[in-house]
Design a protein that fits this description.
Layout lengths: L1 H10 L4 H23 L11 H19 L11 H28 L9 H29 L7 E6 L3 H12 L5 E8 L8 E2 L2 E5 L5 H7 L3 E4 L6 H11 L5 E4 L17 E2 L2 H5 L9 H7 L3 E5 L4 H10 L6 E6 L2 H13 L6 E5 L5 H11 L3 E4 L6 H6 L1 H21 L4 E5 L10 H17 L5 E6 L2 E3 L5 H10 L4 E3 L5 E2 L1 E3 H14 L5 E4 L5 E2 H11 L10 E3 L18 E4 L5 E5 L5 H15 L4 H11 L11 H9 L1
Parallel strand pairs: 1-2, 1-5, 2-4, 5-6, 8-9, 8-11, 9-10, 11-12, 12-13, 13-18, 14-17, 15-20
Antiparallel strand pairs: 3-4, 6-7, 16-19, 18-22, 21-22
Helix pairs in contact: 1-5, 2-3, 2-5, 3-4, 4-5, 11-18, 13-15, 15-16, 15-20, 16-20, 16-21, 20-21
């Protein structure tokens, strides 16, 4: 019953006038204690002037308190800043007493005010100690009787660097979150075995189920910034097997005004582990490249085209023309810009890159300076079953846009390609390689600079594996993986698009830029991680089903062909592929013939012609493997 009254009192914020009275009481008692200390606790000292002096001390204290407003803070949220304010208040009181004492000694206008300087100095120190301590004492009572009554989650912070310390500070200063840091973990041997703010630092490798149960840890918060995604994935993979909730501190770039907010610490998602690189939008090179120019983006409603469009709005272009045949997705993109008050110089157009007359009219009206060509079909199994559509969009559509770029003297044409164009094993990859070859041929015969960018899978793109796994987890599984050893490269959509813009700006024409995709990820392991990070167990809760390779699917993707090497650029994540020489006249003739042949709707003839144009196109797990066998026999 007694505790209930204490809790009720502590829950209420103390009135300012009450805090002021208590502070004045502390100052007055500190003054008396200063006398006792000065006279070695001999109570026989002269006390005749003490009462009068106390009146002046309290008066000067009130001036100090009102000057700094030290009584206005919420005591239960006392922090370093409050201690600093209280210390300044005590210093002001010290100087007021000191100045008055010196003036009084010179002019004797207050005969009852003569105070030994040693007492004034002792009083300063006592004030700082008692005023600050009283606030922390109240805060401790609040934590013990109010917050302590609620069940607090015990937290281990993985990372004892600056981000870890900041996370600790945020948790300690937020009494509403119910998270209580009990340990740090770090792989830096110089930190292991030490204590930070009284909290022990253990070795990351020592975290196991026995340790979790012994320390009764509920949550582990990963708080590491500059770390490779592959290393972060290893840490999260291990922690996900333990009986705890795994959370993560977001990258610094997403902190609010440079400060971490407790609400930003959330459960780990696979996207957090595979891509945490800083995306630099304030790039002076790109600002200069795109300033006051008309930019056209094809396939603008897709995941890549849409992100490119959004990033381009940061560079003060004169006009941004967005083209796509998917009306609903294009409308959603338009509304995004409208809702963000960024629609003044943006035009969205429903049009098909396969329609030469329509695209010609668009070029004639808007006269684009730079083109980002992202329109393409990309689903491997679909395109394996529909070569006509793949050739029609990925090759003919690219050919139409590229030819118009030459006709209307566009400065640059930047094509979005794929790692599947390297030693293609499927129709989709082969069409993208042929499109690369066509614009390379045009680059040799025109003023337009044709540039190719080539990268792997992007996280969260339409039809990618991660959204599929999420949907399968929500349905209760199983997760479907085509092969246990299948590997893929991954990159975040913002990073991929930023690198496309960077490559477009640095390109002089004819280059095929490949991006540093980091280490490849085994899809089977990715599936297990997503199950664990969803708070489920594999295979008890959700199993993984091996379905077999799909048509045209490879186990390993490549970014470079066997006969290609790379050259470095000024950007550490962008390289130039040194591709083999092309016979421009022959290649263009074959591609033109392919587009004509494709109209016959004979898939076999179309694929045979593609294999003629791209000799390294060897089908995998496909009905078209028979043509490779024929070629080998001949």
């Amino acid at each position: 019953m007694k505790n209930k009254y204490i809790i009720a009192i502590l829950k209420e914020s103390a009135p300012r006038w009450l805090v002021l009275i208590i502070d004045c009481y502390i100052v007055a008692n500190s003054f008396v204690l200063a006398h006792l200390i000065r006279f070695n606790f001999d109570i026989g000292f002269d006390k005749s002037q003490l009462t009068s002096q106390l009146v002046y001390v309290v008066f000067f204290a009130l001036i100090s308190f009102f000057t700094f407003g030290s009584y206005k803070g919420i005591i239960r949220h006392t922090g370093i800043r409050d201690a600093f304010i209280v210390s300044n208040t005590s210093l002001l009181l010290f100087f007021l007493l000191l100045i008055t004492e010196f003036l009084n000694r010179a002019f004797a206008f207050l005969p009852e005010f003569f105070i030994p300087l040693s007492i004034i100095a002792i009083h300063l120190l006592l004030n700082i100690v008692f005023l600050v301590s009283s606030r922390y004492f109240y805060k401790e009572l609040y934590d013990r009787f109010v917050t302590g009554n609620k069940k607090r989650k015990r937290v281990l912070i993985y990372g004892a660097g600056e981000a870890g310390l900041l996370t600790y500070s945020v948790l300690k200063n937020d009494n509403d979150n119910q998270l209580y840091p009990v340990a740090f973990a770090d792989d830096d041997v110089t930190k292991v075995g030490k204590k930070i703010n009284g909290v022990a630092v253990i070795k990351g490798a020592d975290i196991n189920e026995a340790f979790i149960l012994k320390k009764r840890i509920d949550d582990i918060i990963i708080s590491i910034q500059n770390i490779k995604p592959s290393e972060l994935l290893k840490i999260a993979d291990k922690l996900a097997t333990l009986p705890v909730n795994v959370k993560i501190v977001p990258p610094i770039k997403s902190w609010i005004d440079g400060d971490l907010n407790i609400k930003q610490i959330k459960s780990v998602h696979i996207e957090d582990l595979l891509g945490r690189d800083l995306i630099l939008l304030d790039n002076p090179i790109l600002k200069k490249e795109f300033h006051s120019k008309t930019l056209l983006v094809t396939g603008a409603a897709g995941s890549i085209g849409g992100e490119i469009s959004k990033q381009l709005t940061n560079y003060n272009c004169e006009h941004l023309v967005l083209v796509d045949q998917a009306e609903s997705d294009l409308y959603n993109l338009q509304q995004y810009f409208v809702n963000n008050n960024n629609n003044n110089n943006i035009t969205t157009i429903v049009a098909d890159v396969r329609d030469k007359n329509r695209m010609d009219a668009i070029f004639k009206q808007y006269q684009p300076t730079i083109i980002f060509h992202a329109a393409a079909y990309k689903h491997v199994p679909y395109m394996e079953d529909n070569p006509y559509e793949s050739v029609n969009v990925n090759i003919l559509g690219t050919k139409i846009i590229a030819d118009l770029a030459v006709k209307y003297e566009v400065d640059k044409f930047v094509m979005i390609s794929t790692d599947k164009a390297v030693n293609p094993a499927n129709v989709m990859g082969a069409t993208k390689r042929i499109a690369e070859m066509y614009i390379t041929c045009l680059n040799k015969k025109s003023e337009t600079k044709f540039i190719t960018t080539r990268f792997g899978n992007v996280l969260g793109s339409n039809g990618s594996v991660i959204p599929l796994f999420k949907e399968q987890i929500e349905r209760g599984g199983p997760l479907t993986v085509t092969h246990k050893e299948i590997n893929r490269y991954f990159m975040t959509i913002p990073e991929a698009c930023q690198l496309v813009l960077e490559a477009g700006a640095m390109g002089d024409g004819g280059e095929i830029y490949v991006f540093d995709m980091g280490e490849s990820v085994k899809i089977y392991d990715l599936a297990k991680n997503m199950i664990r990070l969803s708070g489920l167990k594999y295979p008890e809760d959700i199993d993984i089903k091996i379905t077999g390779l799909r048509s045209g699917e490879k186990i390993y993707e490549e970014l470079l062909a066997d006969d290609e090497q790379t050259s470095d650029t000024y950007h550490e994540k962008i390289m130039i592929a040194n591709v083999k020489h092309l016979d421009v006249i022959l290649v263009k003739e074959r591609i033109n013939n392919l587009c004509i042949l494709n109209k016959e709707l004979d898939f076999n003839k179309t694929v045979r012609k593609m294999k003629e144009i791209v000799p390294e196109f060897v089908s995998n797990n496909s009905q078209y493997e028979v043509f490779d066998a024929e070629k080998t026999e001949s």
